[in-house]
Amino acid sequence: MQEELLFQVALTMIPQIGNAIGRELLEHVGAASDIFKLSRRKLELIPSVGPIRAQIIKSFQDFERVEQELKFIEKYNVQTLWLQDAAYPQKLSHCNDAPLMLYFKGNADLNRERIISIVGTRHPSAYGLQLCRDLVTDLNDKNVMIISGLAYGIDIAAHRTCLKTGIPTIGVLGHGLDRIYPQIHLPEAREMLQHGGLLTDFPSRTEPGRQHFPRRNRIVAGLSSATIVIESGEKGGSMITARLAFDYNRDVFAFPGRVNDPASRGCLQLVQSQKAALVKNAQDILEALGWEDNRLRTYTPQRSIFPSLGNDEVIIFNLLQNHKILHIDDITRESGFNTGKANGILLGLELQSVIRTLPGKMYELL
Question: Is the same domain home to 327 and 222?
Fold first, then answer.
């Protein structure tokens, strides 16, 4: 296991081998360790690799840096989540650019059903801050976990209100777990370890830098069923996160503001371009997501309740019974049905009130 982890970490450190190419390598070869054992000639035959990247992979020698990371992981009891692991966040895994490796410290369930991200400007108005606090407070007792980026402004306001109200919260970092940026948020970060956690795809000793924050934003968007924007200019990290969430087929919500207020222009732009739904309060969001009932289902329906299901419907029913929640891509892969056929069966099951559609093309049994 430790040997496989070594090669997993090594794969993430190879120049010019990003998440998409790394994923393709894993799909063709299987395990990270097998990638390093493959000949250069066989690596060249993998689409998107070619001679140059094959040579880069075979030339990788920085295993001393990898060993240092393994020591850090062991010393600080960091949980590693590899893309192929069952514990890897399911929602995030459906993003084609999902990180190969995540590093996590905390006690939260990253596969929790109800996860939302709250993002916004680093320079909010008093109105924006109060809106954020009210929203988070109203989500208490709704079995929700809240994700943000531990940055100034709306991010830290969301985290602080979660800690105050008892809502689990995850801070996604644009650097390694060996530091907190901005450092002034270290007290909140420490408290979050007991009430959620800290997550990153960067190894230790990675300095915070502007070039890293888009990667962080992808995780924030991909982990969540929905992204909520509270005050944002027309440019900036929160707008990037919102557009990523939209591209990932996740729900995006934005709060309105005055049309001449610079801090509201981003939200208004998202609504105007139909990338976000306009909301006024937490209730609007809960209703849109179908989360009005704060009780999570604890029973499993029995096959005998639905005697009229056809053979194809039973196949998908059994998949959902075993996995609880599945993305359309998983359903097509595991059932062997093409997307069109699977969608038709899913629609029939939904009309029979056997399943329901969740945000992000996810499905679950009723």
Answer: no
- Residue 301 placed within a domain: no
- List the structure tokens of 233: 């200019």
> Nearest 5°: phi and psi at 252?
-125, 135
Spans of the chain below 50 pLDDT: 296-305, 307
Give the C-alpha separation, 293 to 224, whole Å: 19
C-alpha to C-alpha distance for 231 and 152, rounded to whole angstroms: 13
Q: Is 241 helix (H, G, I), strand (E, B) or coil?
A: helix
Kindly tell me the sign of the dihedral angle through the C-alpha atoms of 129, 132, 135, 141: negative
C-alpha distances in Å from residue 103, one per residue of 2, 126, 276: 15, 34, 30
pLDDT tens-place string over residues 299-358: 344 444 454 677 788 888 888 887 778 888 889 888 888 888 888 888 888 877 788 888
Rg (CA), the chain: 22
Please tell me the distance from the alpha carbon of residue 176 to that of residue 321, in angstroms, as a whole number. Answer: 38
Omega cis (within 30) before 182: yes
How many domains would you assign to the chain?
Answer: 3
User: pTM score, two decimals?
Assistant: 0.80
What count of Cα atoms within 13 Å lies in the side-chain half-sphere of residue 13? Answer: 23
What is residue 257's predicted lDDT score, i.e. its pLDDT? 79
What pLDDT is stored for residue 210 in this prediction? 81
CB 115 within 8 A of CB 225: yes
223 in Cβ contact with 92 (< 8 Å): yes
DSSP per-residue letters across 80-149: EEETTSTTS-HHHHTSTT--SEEEEEES--TT-S-EEEEEE-SS--HHHHHHHHHHHHHTTTS--EEEE-
- In degrees, rounded to 5, the angle at the alpha carbon of residue 156 between the alpha carbons of residues 154 and 158 is 65
Q: Which of the listed residues 54, 75, 96 is the one where a domain comes to its end?
A: 75
CA dist 220 and 163 (Å) reads 18
- Bridge partner residues of 82 (DSSP): 101
- Measure Cα distances from 234 to 59, 122, 264, 266 in Å: 43, 13, 8, 4
Containing domain of residue 326, as a range?
A: 311-365
